Structures are given as C-alpha cells and as structure tokens.
Amino acid sequence: MSRLQVVSGKGGTGKTTVAAALALALATEGKRTLLVEVEGRQGIAQLFETEALPYEERKIAVASGGGEVFALAIDAERALLDYLQMFYKLGTAGRALKKLGAIDFATTIAPGVRDVLLTGKACEAVRRKAKGRYVYDYVVLDAPPTGRITRFLNVNDEVAGLARFGPIYNQAQAVMRVLKSAGTAVHLVTLLEEMPVQETADGVAELRAADLPVGKVIVNMVRPHLLDEGAVRSAAGDRADIAKALTAAGVSGSAKLVTPLLQQAADHAQRVELEREQRAALNGLDLASYELPLLSEGVDLAGIYQLSKELRKQGAAS
C-alpha cells in the first residue's frame, strides 16, 4: 500500500471529495492520515464542515475503528519562509522579504520553485518520524487538475532550468525520490463522460512518460442503470400494453403518460450506452479502478463517510 496517495482529476469530477473519502478510508483501525491541499480553495474545510484551515496540521475527523484524519492547507508563501529558515536561517529576514513582496515575486516568476515547496511539504510529512515510527501512516495529496498534474509532480525538470546545484536543486531531488518511488501512487478521478475520460487517458500517458507511478482510476458519480436498451426496444412496441399496465396499477391518465415515459426510457438507454463506451475506453488504460456512486442528496459530511465506506469495500484500505 502506497504511503503517499496523490489524487488528481479534471475540474468538476469531484477530486477533492474523493481525496477526502480516501483519507477517511485509509484511516481505519487506528491509522493516522494527513489530507493535504495545495490550491488554496479551502475545499477540505468545506467538506468537513469546519473553519478555514490554518497553515498547520489539524485533526478534522475520526474514522472507523478509531483512526484519525488530519488536514493541512499548504500556503506557498509560508512554505517558502519555512524553506528559508530551514536552509538559510533567514527567519526574520524572510519575513522582511515577504513585506517587500519578494516572496510573492519568487513563487510567481518561478512556478517550478512553488511546486517544489508544495510537494516538498507533503513529502516531508511522508518521511517524518517520531519515536521510531512514522507520524502518519498515509498522506493523501489533493493535487491540481489532470491538465497540469505531471508538471506539478515532475519538479526535477521544472527546477532544472533554475538551479543545477544548491539547496533548491537538492530539495527537488529529494522530492522526486519520494514521488517516483513504489511508496507513491497517483490516482485520477473521472466521470463516465467523454471529456473527463479523454483527459484521464491523456494524464495517464503523460504520467507514464514522466516515469511517475500511476495508481488507480476512480470513477466518480456513477448513476444506477434502471433499464437497458433491450428493455426500451421491447417497451416501444407495446404502447397499448403499457397504458393498460399503468391503468391496472391505479395510475390515472395513463394514456398521456406513455409517450413521456418511453422518452425517459430512451434517454436512459442512450446514457447507458454512452457510459458503456466510456468504460471500454477506461478499460483500455489497463489500470485497476474504483467506482463511487452519485449521491442524490449532494455531498455533505455524511456523504464523505458513505464514500469512504464504499472505497474500503473495494479494497482501498487493504
């Protein structure tokens, strides 16, 4: 089981929701999981119905069996100040640089440095030990969308043009040793729709080309199949029988209901066929997958626990 699990996905696929559910699923039987976000959206705080996360690790949930989920919202400026203090002992000077706008300038003009700082903080949490054991059994990173996940993780290439030696270069090397190890898995979240599936396929290809460890495809918001195409074809030829059946069931105005019911059935069958095509495309990626249901009531804290239970059933914590 990979100790660093990175979650990415096209915008709108629910990657933050999946990352939160995965963190809960992993924090079973007394395990400790750190859930990390790097995009500054405070999505984790919203999902767990808590106040905005500060730049510190904070317990936000208790999982099945007494496990604990901690969360950290990484801020690039604060991470750079930590970095300056760690390598250059520039605590006070670093704060002065922040006031002068130099920190913002550095993280904007050199996005590769920013990504080293963000991924570096997560990798440090993976390696951290206390009293001879890891502080966290797992770290789940809610990463940027699929379109830029490879660039975000492949910090060694991003920094190569900025520094070929020194602390920044060494930090990038240390980060890449974690990210490219067997202890890391990069999961991609998708929907059974053409654009998210295509972006997932592109993301998998880019990750593999960069020699980054691809984990699983997580198909989110899966809707139940109520009718197949054969059932629709059968119903289409028996309009009178359908009307009689509705009348027998005590439905008034049954004759007027036949056409809209058949249209709904046809729409459902078309969606099922489109989803079948997208599943076939995902199967072509030769990756294991998890599937999570669409929550009809929307995603709230109870929904996160429900999704974590689904992930455990499918082996996410084993």
From TrEMBL:
<feature type="domain" description="ArsA/GET3 Anion-transporting ATPase-like">
    <location>
        <begin position="5"/>
        <end position="178"/>
    </location>
</feature>
<dbReference type="InterPro" id="IPR027417">
    <property type="entry name" value="P-loop_NTPase"/>
</dbReference>
<dbReference type="InterPro" id="IPR025723">
    <property type="entry name" value="ArsA/GET3_ATPase-like"/>
</dbReference>
<dbReference type="GO" id="GO:0005524">
    <property type="term" value="F:ATP binding"/>
</dbReference>
<dbReference type="GO" id="GO:0016887">
    <property type="term" value="F:ATP hydrolysis activity"/>
</dbReference>
<dbReference type="InterPro" id="IPR016300">
    <property type="entry name" value="ATPase_ArsA/GET3"/>
</dbReference>
<protein>
    <submittedName>
        <fullName>ATPase</fullName>
    </submittedName>
</protein>
<dbReference type="Pfam" id="PF02374">
    <property type="entry name" value="ArsA_ATPase"/>
</dbReference>
